[in-house]
Design goal:
The complex is a heterodimer of chains A (218) and B (150).
Chain A (H helix, E strand, L loop, with lengths): L7 H29 L3 H4 L9 E2 L4 E4 L4 E3 H4 L4 E6 L6 H14 L9 E6 L7 H11 L4 E4 L2 H10 L4 E4 L8 E5 L2 E4 L4 E6 L5 H19 L1
Parallel strand pairs in A: 4-5, 5-6
Antiparallel strand pairs in A: 1-10, 2-3, 2-6, 4-9, 7-8, 9-10
Chain B lengths: L1 H13 L14 E5 L7 E10 L5 E7 L3 E12 L2 E7 L2 E3 L3 E5 L4 E8 L8 E8 L4 E9 L3 H5 L2
Parallel strand pairs in B: 1-10
Antiparallel strand pairs in B: 1-2, 2-7, 2-8, 3-6, 3-9, 4-5, 4-8, 9-10
């Protein structure tokens, strides 16, 4: 291939050409890499990144009265919503929306666990919670706990709730955060969905966040 | 005058079950959302029309199917949902009020027996001038829109 008679001018041109092709290749490669790891913060406002909130150990129980703690949240994706069974408006609306959302996910392996955490343990015993969540979706899991444990759990993950008295003492109301939390397999909160909720948007955003977090771990 | 107003109000409200979807904007229409079995509280939503030429103030709702019914309003501020009882609901002259999930609704307390989708339940509204008007609300699982689009 080497031609000793090639003029120095031609050699310079060839070298220039090789450098140009290499630069272009490097440039494309770099560009692709950039596209693979965009800054998701700007694109997905619901994503908590890079400051996902690691949940600390806690002790609650599920609707079968089994212990429910950090271990139960690890190894899978979860959506968590807080409410109470004496809530006629926001809670059923959100539970139906969560059912619609998970039902629209076509690949079963992508369906997250869904937890309904009752912030009203006085009225929501496990059997009642079980019946309640089962109505919306038999796979959903009801969770509650001792008031002190519940308060600790809510506080560490930024969920607010407060009891409001009414004329009849047994018909008290609970004010509560109505955001839906997305918890990743390391038991970190990696996303927060604020109201107003939209099933399709939550689904799309959940799948994007999941893709993104899993790409970071590859 | 008062008598004829009452009659018009009654007529429009009671016509609802006979009116098709196309006429929704001209008639009151209420639905009760089915709840989990043994749920202690349910909610009713929909549209209430006031065909009269004066403000209509509804001060109470009664039904033999529930121990008590209250007007409630949910507001969500800084991500926290708060539900509060309202003394009354006012509907402007020739106007309407929308009751919807996450907003103003009727809170139906302690059903006397199980409330299941497909049931028709009579709700009687009482106005500040003591008019009594009944609306038949249908029990729906999910949301009425879910069924219309399918």
């Amino acid at each position: 291939m080497y031609n000793p008679h090639m003029s120095s001018n031609k050699r310079t041109t060839l070298l220039f050409g090789i450098v140009a092709v290499l630069s272009l290749a490097l440039g494309i490669g770099f560009n692709l890499k950039q596209q693979a790891t965009p800054d998701p913060g700007a694109e997905i406002p619901e994503l908590l990144w890079p400051k996902a909130k690691q949940i600390m150990p806690f002790k609650l129980f599920d609707h079968d009265a089994n212990e429910f703690g950090l271990e139960q949240l690890k190894g899978h994706w979860s959506l968590m919503f807080f409410g109470y069974t004496h809530c006629p408006d926001v809670c059923p609306t959100t539970m139906m929306l969560l059912n619609k959302m998970v039902s629209s996910i076509e690949q079963p392996e992508l369906i997250p666990s869904v937890y309904f955490v009752s912030i009203d343990p006085q009225r929501d015993q496990p059997a009642k919670l079980s019946e309640y969540v089962n109505y919306f979706n038999p796979e959903f899991i009801g969770v509650s706990g001792e008031p002190a444990q519940l308060a600790y759990f809510a506080r560490q993950i930024g969920i607010l709730f407060a009891r409001v008295e009414t004329e009849e003492p047994e018909n008290y109301i609970m004010d509560h955060s109505s955001s839906i939390l997305l918890i990743d397999p390391t038991a970190s909160i990696s996303g927060i969905f604020s109201t107003p909720h939209d099933a399709d948007k939550i689904k799309q955003t959940y799948l994007r966040i999941r893709d993104f977090i899993e790409a970071q771990n590859d | 005058m008062i008598k004829s107003f009452q009659w018009r109000f009654l007529l429009v409200l009671l016509c609802f079950p006979l009116i098709s979807n196309g006429a929704e904007t001209s008639a009151s229409r209420l639905w009760i959302r089915e709840a989990p079995p043994n749920a202690p509280v349910l909610a009713a939503y929909g549209t209430i029309m006031n065909p009269g030429d004066t403000i209509l103030r509804l001060i109470a709702v009664e039904s033999s199917a529930f121990e008590d019914i209250q007007f409630h309003q949910t507001t969500t501020v800084y991500g926290v949902s708060r539900m509060r009882a309202m003394e009354s609901i006012e509907i402007p002259a020739a106007g309407k009020v929308h009751l919807e999930p996450g907003g103003t609704h009727l809170m139906l307390i302690k059903p006397v027996s199980a409330i299941r989708a497909g049931m028709q339940i009579e709700l009687t509204f009482i106005s500040s001038s003591q008019q009594r008007v009944s609306i038949i609300a249908e029990v729906v699982k999910g949301h009425p829109d879910d069924h219309h689009h399918h």
